[in-house]
Amino acid sequence: MNSSVHPVVAILVLFLTATAIAIWAWGTGVAASFGGPAELRTGPNGHHFVQIQNHLVEHDADGRYLKTHDLETLGVDVMLGGFDFFSDGDILLRRGPDKRSFLDNLRAFQRQANRSATSPESPDSGLFRCDLETLACTRFGTPGVDFKATFGIFIDRAKGEVYISDTTRHVLRKYAADGYELAGPAGNFQFPNQLLLHEGQLLVADTNHHVVRIVEAQTAEFGQAVASKDVVPPAARRAGQTWPSHFARIGDEWWVNNMRTGMNEGGLYAFDLDWKFQRRIELPASADPIALLAVGDEVWVSDWNGDVVRRLNMDGKALRDLDSAGLAAILATSALERRKSELYSYAGIALVVLVLLALLVRGFAVGMNRDS
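The chain above was modelled as a monomer; its predicted structure follows.
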């Protein structure tokens, strides 16, 4: 005769298992939030900025560390989306928390369009134009703009015009310096990412179409197609790196970061000025490049999982990684916090194992009693 499991025991087992899984998921998620260097920008004063988590690490024109800007002092809970600078040094970025739900992330994973409105949910959230020194911020646009998901920014500093790739809504937008929407949304994109204004035209990393698209930047014709450049050569396809996210003009070449399906572990591919493939830029096998930045006669490449900003010469040969005291301090703290979170996730796994072992022991004991 089979021995039935007491309902209380069954509920307790299910509760412990769910708790263990929740602890593991929470620890893993928190550990992942302590990412490495991400976006790179050069300000109007020639200083170079490395964005890492909720910080901007500022360096002079020669790459020497100057200071670290804690973006939390500007009201940035989570750095969501890109940033760029106006000609007066003001920065345009998003303030507020990341309120994306599980369903929002699931729709993004399934390549569905973002359904949320682009209006801010609170007086303190959305795009703001801020002064990094005085910490004074003014809302961008009336009544405001908030994409509530990842987006790219490029600011034409000569005109003060702002170009946005609204990544999860698959469109481009154009704004005046005060946030008035000049044009858009312009569609026919699939997860557009980095933007760059070049010779009067707008270049867009059209990630899920696997191309760099060239479109009209002028307000009257904004978003109209000019050309589409295939930036996934056979070498990239063989490596599974087919999703262009970032690119940069490097000397007489274009360099493109083509990522894998998980939008990580990308590879750098060089093209001539007519977008003909030239070569693959060699990086360590563990590299996880994000952004590219031309700095004098060298190239900076942010490496999210590698916790470094890599430096290459214009031929793509590796130089010594960026030596930045500010970046090193953040990474040291991140490593400690990441380790703590990982220990929580391991504890969750251990709890699941203990629950399973307890069930096996009880099952064995019941079987022995039944046999006797």
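DSSP finds four helices and 23 strands in the chain.
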